């Protein structure tokens, strides 16, 4: 394998928490009388909690001050964290355990690069907290994807130059962040569908992650 490190996004790559995020935001939106559906929820993938809230408030019929926005975001996170208690190792996405094992066996360093502030909690719930040598998450960054900060931080923690890192992403914002950070990106999910828009991506789009085991 040409890369010394692989940096994984978390939600939608290692485990899918989209439905839990949707339920959390939906509850808050309904309480505020703001229209919110699954199509709206897709716009929130890969962006921070406060940026997600700003997207939701585009359909609000009144303005919210900063204190109110913080309260809404906190309310959503409280619901979401309660829902996270449902997660178990059975929720790890197909192919991921084999992929991680294959990369580790090949001596490739592994990291998480996620905008989520709940990344450690999620990893603990699914039994992978000790699998990654570095975790860069929303608690440690000031700019979320498509800014490359979270991936740059993950690479720095691993001690690996950007050019030697491969990012695995399912969101367009995350794929763009990897490219902006000078890293190769492998697209899955929604990012794969938008692959033609990702100038600079130098890995074939693919819906599977098992290929990493083979490369290793």
Describe the structure in your own words.
The chain has 216 residues and is α/β, with parallel strands linked by helices. It folds into two domains: 5-16 and 89-215, 3-Layer(aba) Sandwich (Rossmann fold), CATH 3.40.50.1000; 18-84, DNA polymerase, domain 1, CATH 1.10.150. It has ten helices and five strands; from the N terminus they run βαααααβαβαβαβαα. It has helices spanning 18-32, 38-42, 49-56, 66-84, 96-105, 119-125, 149-158, 172-180, 189-193, 211-215; strands at residues 5-8, 109-113, 134-136, 165-169, 184-187. It has a five-stranded parallel beta sheet with strand order 3-2-1-4-5. Strand 2, helix 6 (119-125) and strand 3 form a beta-alpha-beta unit. It is globular. Mean pLDDT is 88; it is low at 198-216.
**What is the strand content?**
5-15%
Please report the number of helical segments.
10
Structural class computed from helices and strand pairing: alpha/beta
**Structural domains: how many:** 2
Q: Per the principal axes of the C-alpha atoms, what is the gross shape?
A: globular
- How many distinct beta strands? 5
Share of helical residues: 40-55%
**Unreliable sequence segments:** 198-216
